[in-house]
Design goal:
81 residues, mainly alpha, 2 helices, 0% strand
Length: 81
């Protein structure tokens, strides 16, 4: 691999997926369900979170940016909004 300054992320694959994506069962539960889910909304969703810390050696920011762009271009789910 050449220097990260020279790297260009690939374009998304031509067969990239698009359109609406239905919620996963856990998302339906979290957001209060839908018809037949049997779920009830959480009392305080704004206090429902998860965090973590990664300890790494010093990273090259340009290489991290390139890597994230490559992942997003390759995996359709990373481009969901």
């Amino acid at each position: 691999m050449s220097h990260s300054e020279d790297l260009c992320p690939p374009e998304p694959e031509p067969e990239s997926l698009g359109g609406e994506v239905p919620m996963l069962p856990i998302q339906k539960w979290f957001f209060g369900g839908g018809s037949g889910s049997g779920a009830s909304p959480l009392a305080s969703r704004n206090h429902w979170n998860q965090s973590f810390t990664l300890m790494t050696p010093e990273l090259n920011p340009k290489r991290v940016e390139y890597t994230m762009k490559v992942l997003a271009a390759h995996h359709d789910a990373f481009r969901l909004r």
